[in-house]
Amino acid sequence: MSIKIGIIGATGIVGSEFISLLEERKISVTDLYLFASEKSDGKKIRFKDKNIRVEKLEKSKLENLDYSFFCSSEEISKKFIPVAAANDICCIDNSAAFRLHRDVPLVIPEINPHALENHKNIIANPNCSTIIALMALFPLHQRFGLSGFCVSTYQAVSGVGLAGIEALKQDMVGNFALSQDIFGEQILQNAIPKIGQFSLNGYSSEELKMSNESRKILSLQKLKVSSTCVRLPILRAHSMSIIARFRSPFDLDEAEQILSTNEHIDYFPNAFPTPLKQACKNNVGIGRLRKDTFLKNAATMWAVGDQIRKGAALNAIQIMEHLAHAKYQG
Question: Average pLDDT in the 167-171 region?
Answer without folding.
Answer: 98
